[in-house]
UniProtKB/TrEMBL annotation:
This is Oxidoreductase. It comes from Desertifilum tharense IPPAS B-1220. The keyword Chloroplast does not apply. One of its GO terms (biological process) is photosynthesis. GO terms for cellular component: photosystem II. Gene3D superfamilies: NAD(P)-binding Rossmann-like Domain (3.40.50.720). Pfam families: NAD_binding_10. Residues 6-187 form the NAD(P)-binding domain.
């Protein structure tokens, strides 16, 4: 039995699809107020709960052999990204879980103090590595599925908002590839107790994204490119009235200010271990947008 947390998220629901397509018994951890109809239709067993409650986590872990932790939240990283994963790992040890797959983030080991999410991810990685469980840690760059609403907006307006350095590099990952990698991690010997950077196959510059949109929709992109300083100004102003909001924008600031890409050697390692060819961003978008 697999347990998937964050099962209603953009990655989690794809993981449930892969598992159910392969007929694997799957528990999907969901909140009562989320949209989980599709998961149920695919034959996943629903565990209704909240990851802020330890007893819900304990119940979800009963009788589970594999855990794939994909949940996340910008709102309360200390509780959701950190505490809930520590509790899941402790329950996994108690239940004798065979393999724990953890969705981290590319760059979490670079010491970005401004982002609670990045800090929480790194600490959870450490805790998992010391737990004695078999694990696979996946550190993805940005998900291609994040770009679908932006592409739809571009289709209507031709406008793309790019905050910060347009030349910063990124290796956007196909969210479907990542879902397959997460599921395969429990079965592939070479993925056991390993950490993988997951992205690519291409190293793009951020300004390539509106160019790809332009090609897809046959439209010249209008790129609005405020500098990072403008973001900082707005963030600081917000901080005067709402210091908590200012703090929570730290993760976005870290994402906007830095590069997240996989080297060719990292992509090669991934494709070799998982016996796959990573899908390009353009391929992913064409598939979903039917263009
Ligand atoms: N998106 C990216 O570009 C990216 C890049 C690198 C790493 N990651 C990491 O990859 C993982 C998956 O990302 P994603 O974009 O697929 O996430 P997502 O779409 O934001 O989904 C988050 C999931 O977590 C669930 N969740 C949040 N708080 C919860 C709570 N208190 N109790 C139960 N469930 C709760 C949400 O449930 P509801 O439906 O009820 O809200 C949802 O299913 C995350 O760990 C994220 O940090 C994401």
């Amino acid at each position: 039995m697999f347990l998937v947390t964050g099962a209603t998220g953009s990655l989690g629901r794809r993981i449930v699809r892969v598992l159910r397509d392969r007929d694997r018994p799957t528990k999907a951890f969901v909140r009562l107020n989320s949209r989980y109809g599709e998961l149920e239709q695919r034959g996943a067993q629903l565990v209704i709960g909240d990851l802020r409650r330890d007893r819900d986590i304990a119940k979800a872990c009963e009788g589970v052999r594999y855990i794939i932790s994909t949940h996340g939240s910008e709102r309360d990283p200390a509780q959701i990204q950190y505490r809930a994963n520590i509790e899941l790992i402790d329950r996994a040890v108690a239940e004798g879980v065979e393999h724990f797959v953890y969705l981290s983030v590319l760059g979490c080991d670079r010491g970005y103090e401004d982002s609670l999410v990045f800090k929480a991810k790194r600490e959870v990685e450490r805790y998992l590595q010391a737990s004695g469980l078999n694990y696979t840690i996946l550190r993805p760059s940005g998900f291609a599925s994040n770009l679908l609403p932006l592409a739809e907006n571009f289709r209507q307006t031709g406008v793309y908002l790019l905050i910060g350095d347009p030349q910063n590099r990124t290796s956007i990952v196909s969210t479907d590839d990542l879902a397959r990698i997460a599921v395969d991690s429990v079965e592939i010997e070479a993925a056991r107790n390993q950490v993988f950077a997951v992205g690519g196959p291409d190293i793009l510059q951020r300004e390539d994204i509106p160019r790809i949109f332009g090609r897809l929709f046959n439209r010249e992109p209008l790129i609005l490119n405020p500098p990072l300083l403008a973001f900082d100004g707005v963030r600081n102003a917000l901080g005067v009235v709402n210091p908590q909001l200012q703090k929570s924008l730290g993760t976005l600031r870290v994402l906007l200010a830095n590069e997240y890409f996989c080297t060719p050697a990292e992509v090669e390692r991934l494709e070799s271990v998982y016996s796959m060819k990573m899908e390009s961003l353009e391929g992913f978008l064409r598939r979903y947008l039917a263009v």
